[in-house]
Specification:
Layout (H helix, E strand, L loop, with lengths): L1 H12 L12 E6 L14 H7 L8 E3 L5 E3 L2 E6 L5 E6 L13 H12 L15 E8 L2 E6 L6 H5 L25 E7 L3 E6 L13 E6 L15 E2 L5 H5 L6 E6 L4 E6 L9 H10 L2 H9 L3 E3 L22 H10 L6 E7 L3 H16 L2 E7 L2 H6 L8 E6 L20 H12 L3 H17 L4 E6 L1 E6 L2 E2 L16 E2 L1
Helix pairs in contact: 6-8, 7-9, 11-12
Length: 489
């Protein structure tokens, strides 16, 4: 399989590369999943933001590698004393790729579009539903009036679902995004690659060294020390043998932290997973340390709730359900399960899911739970499991501070708990920092106590990069590739 993959990669390279891999004005990324859209305001997959965020489409705020927020399309902002009015002063030197000026009207249009009930925006509940009113007193000022305080508002505005779309072409953004970023879409070769090219009209075009960036979709497992020579960066794709090859003359391995949470997601609507004792049994049946060792070679931290150790206010709950197959069997018996329980595990085409799914299935079997593994494509996962049509799935949630997803009963987990929603609402409205921290801890405990999912680990991000490429992030508070910061030495 590897030899076949390498041959295909070599043959296809000429179809979209402007020059040899050694060219100093381009970069080729190898990414695992092909986006199903190029509009992060209406598509949930993190792969969308990997390609277009900061590069083609920009937001008011930028999240830096260290997690801080800095101005982007907004040059500054002011926050009212009650933290419910945010006034953003917009940059005046910004234009869309078609030459039209960026202004407050574009922000208002984009945010109102995201607020629509049918928008598909994954931040609608946690961000846009909280915006009571959008005022534009002049073309360069936007005022957001919130329904309630949100200590994470600036951070949320820096995520990809909050990018600003061109009002005249927003409905075509899934395939023809028109933004304000330093690159524009050249072409999308479905099933193969997406090519971006530098936009000469960018406000700071002189500082952008790259002329071209190619995002190639690598669906095969690269389990060889011989990497395809045309690819400069393998993002979060480093398999065991690649990671061992740290002295390769062409590549280096960058290992950092992220806000990711990898979990065995459970359909809380589906019997018998609607029984707390069954979900608790599944959590007790999993040896997280063994999963991390076998799948990641130890490059991850065990977690017990939907929160990453890199995020402020993290509470260590990995010991809430210690590995205990005997306890797991007892809980299944208490839930009325007779004999062995059989469940289906749907696995998307990512190395962590396919490798991790095998390990988890073996562990569950030892506790009396037989697993039927279903291998699905990424589009099938999005149209199946992500729509709530699944029993179990192994998936990595990369968005930071996204515990709010559990307030939506229609979300694919099917978790519907009024007490949890009340905790999140109280956290939103808390004024005292100590009170907010206490409520954030209660939020994490509530998810763990209800065993909504079986959380596994927060993975380290391992990126294999060609030596000489500078500006790559090592840590990923959000999954983006800031192409304007890259340069060859």
């Amino acid at each position: 399989m590897i030899a076949r993959y390498l041959l295909i990669a070599h043959l296809m390279a000429g179809a979209w590369l402007a020059g040899p891999a050694s060219a100093r004005d381009q970069v080729v990324f190898g990414i695992t999943l092909e986006p199903n859209s190029l509009d992060p305001t209406s598509a949930p997959a993190a792969a969308v933001g990997e390609v277009v965020h900061y590069n083609v489409l920009e937001g008011l705020v930028k999240i830096e590698e260290n997690g801080s927020t800095t101005p982007l399309l907004a040059e500054s902002w002011e926050i009212s004393a009650d933290a419910r009015h945010y006034s953003f002063r917009l940059r005046r030197d910004v234009r869309f790729h078609d030459g039209q000026a960026f202004d407050a009207a574009a922000v208002k249009y984009s945010f109102e579009r995201a607020k629509a009930p049918d928008s598909g925006n994954k931040s609608r509940t946690k961000l846009f539903d909280n915006i009571e009113r959008i005022d534009t007193p002049d073309p360069h000022t936007v005022v957001l009036v919130l329904r309630h305080r949100d200590p994470h508002l600036l951070y949320r505005l820096g995520e990809s679902p909050a990018v600003i779309l061109h009002p005249a072409s927003a409905e075509r953004a899934s395939t023809e995004p028109v933004g304000t970023g330093p690159f524009r879409l050249e072409r999308w070769d479905k099933g193969h690659a997406i090519t971006l090219v530098k936009w000469p009209g960018y406000r700071d075009a002189a500082s952008v060294q790259l002329q071209r960036a190619v995002f190639r979709f690598v669906n095969s497992f690269v389990d060889s020390t011989e990497l395809p020579p045309e690819v400069d960066v393998f993002f979060n794709f480093a398999t065991k043998s690649v990671l061992r090859n740290r002295l390769n003359e062409r590549y280096q391995v960058l290992t950092g932290g992220s806000s990711s949470k990898t979990l065995l997601a459970l359909n809380n609507r589906h019997p018998p997973l609607d029984d707390l004792r069954v979900r608790q049994a599944i959590s007790h049946a999993i040896d997280r340390a063994a999963v991390i060792h076998q799948v990641l070679e130890g490059r991850g931290d065990p977690i017990g709730s939907h929160y990453s150790p890199t995020e402020d206010g993290y509470l260590h709950l990995a010991d809430r359900y210690p590995y205990d197959p005997v306890r797991a069997r007892a809980l299944l018996a208490e839930a009325g399960v007779e004999g062995r329980l059989r469940l289906k595990l749907s696995l998307p085409p990512t190395p962590y899911a396919r490798d991790g799914g095998k390990v988890v299935a073996q562990q569950l079997a030892a506790a009396g739970i037989d697993v039927d593994i279903e291998l699905v494509s990424w589009p099938d996962w999005l149209n199946g499991a992500f729509q709530g049509r699944f029993e179990m799935t192994l998936i990595n949630h990369v968005e930071p501070l996204d515990y709010d997803i559990y307030t939506d009963p229609s979300y694919y987990f099917g978790y519907d708990n009024a007490d949890f929603r009340a905790l999140v609402e109280a956290h939103r409205n808390a004024v005292n920092p100590r009170q907010r921290n206490r409520l954030l801890a209660d939020i994490q405990r509530k998810l763990a106590d209800d065993a909504v999912n079986a959380w596994l680990y927060a993975p380290q991000v391992s990126t294999v990069a060609r030596k000489g490429l500078e500006g790559l992030w090592v840590n990923y508070p959000i999954y983006v590739h800031d192409l304007a910061a890259l340069r060859w030495r």
